[in-house]
Amino acid sequence: MRPEELLTLFQNVGAIRQGHFELSSGRHSTTYVQCALVLQHPKYAEQLGRALAGEFHDLKIEVVASPALGGIVLGHEVARAIGCRAVFVERDSTGRMALRRGFEVTAKESVLVVEDVWTTGGSTSETIRVIEEAGGRVIAVGALIDRSNGRLEFPVRAEALLEMKAESYEASQCPQCRTGSQAVRPGSRLSRTFA
């Protein structure tokens, strides 16, 4: 799937929104990408999973791991395309990301971490930590959209299907906040307590 096709798909389903948003990372932006609006359609989720899996065709991947909530559907579709299993990490009662629900990663299993959108890369980095602490070996990370403006550096190979220029700001530096505008939080994380 070419980047322009991906962008058109996201635009056609209304997944790219303009306004004043607080992202899951706590940063503010005028652009928000709601991947769930695309991934709710099984045919698109399957296409996107297959396309992202194709970026890693040269690797032997045994597990796809994703951060909850945004990466679960995508991770499952990438794993289906690869022919391996999918797990996800989620916050425990202390707010720390963890493998739960009986998920395990065996020692030295090769893992691909998949996320829907990268801005700061925080959820992907937390997922890497969880998988490595469990004994897995993260060999690559992938996302549908990289909106970091080239600021991310992961310790492994990283591939995104689309690079999207979208500025984000620390809340204290947000131009819209300075005009009195209130940011909305459309993401899955209800509280910044764990950001």
Describe the structure.
This protein has 195 residues and is an alpha/beta fold. It has one domain (3-185): Rossmann fold (3-Layer(aba) Sandwich). It contains six helices and nine strands. α5 links the parallel β6 (110-118) and β7. α3 (42-54) crosses α4. The longest helix is centred in the first third of the chain and has 13 residues, at 42-54.
Reported CATH architecture: 3-Layer(aba) Sandwich
Question: How do the SSEs run, as a string of H and E?
Answer: HEEHHEHEEEHEEEH
Question: Could you give the order of strands across the largest sheet?
Answer: 5-4-3-6-7-8
Provide the domain count: 1
Low-confidence blocks of residues: 190-195
Report the mean per-residue pLDDT as an integer: 90
Class of secondary structure makeup:
alpha/beta
Assigned CATH class: Alpha Beta
Strand content: 25-35%
Largest sheet: 6 strands, mixed
